[in-house]
Amino acid sequence: MKKQETLAQGHRMCPGCIIPVALRNILNATPHQVITANATGCAEICLGAYPYTAFNDPWIHSLFENPASVISGVEALYRKKKKTSQEEKEIKFLCIGGDGAMSDIGLQFLSGAIERGTDAVFVCFDNEGFMNTGNQRSSATPIYSSTSTSPYGKSQKRKPLAEIIIAHDIPYVAQCSPSHIFDLQKKAKKAFETKGPAFLNVLVTCPTNWKTPPEKGLDILKDAVDTNFWPLFEVENGKWKLNIKPKDRKPIETFLKGQKRFAHLFKNEQKARITEIQANIDKNFERLLKLETCFGE
Known about the structure:
The protein is an alpha/beta fold.
């Protein structure tokens, strides 16, 4: 980790928000200057509300949908200057947004930037909803989670964003959690060192809308990994690797309990849904194991 912090002390994120923990470790994974394009969302409004910013390196606030396009243009200009010897300094490029920006509103822009081969790291901070505007459901919201627009529980499964990006056949894609901070650091370092586009899908808690104690964020994220709700994996040049295979896999109730967005599932008439969630998680993890077997080292 580099000594000089890119993310300064002091920001306006909610108490217990894990985005600053994840972002700080990602930014510090490279010794080089980082230019960041930030979609509208929690990180943007809380880390860069005019006239203040928590970034020590150049930072651009883009629209909700187009940070990938913005960073593509900046990276293209940099490559041009390098080619003509107008720029000698090594610079890295980062595009960040929440699941609303990356999985929904900006998915086509993200897909386009990756397809063009933009040499940048693209990061989705997935807190499983449109949290900055009141906890509306997103395509990343898990099934049966209560939101302001699905108060009795979302009826659809979440969109597998990381696997959608893997289908673009780019050099590096990883799913991460700040609860396993060294795994996140290693993956961020790999992403910055990758020539071409790299993508990190990072689960982060939202105590405001998950309705969880602020101090429990990392514990909840660890439960997400230990229950296989959020498997940690990476795909490097087409080779799959599951980074964590829990020896004593915890039941999904371990992750769901304590989050009021799932409180309705623990009523007698709803408990069958927990069984359904568990079955889906087990099926998905078995599928990932097969992918590692077929396309691993």
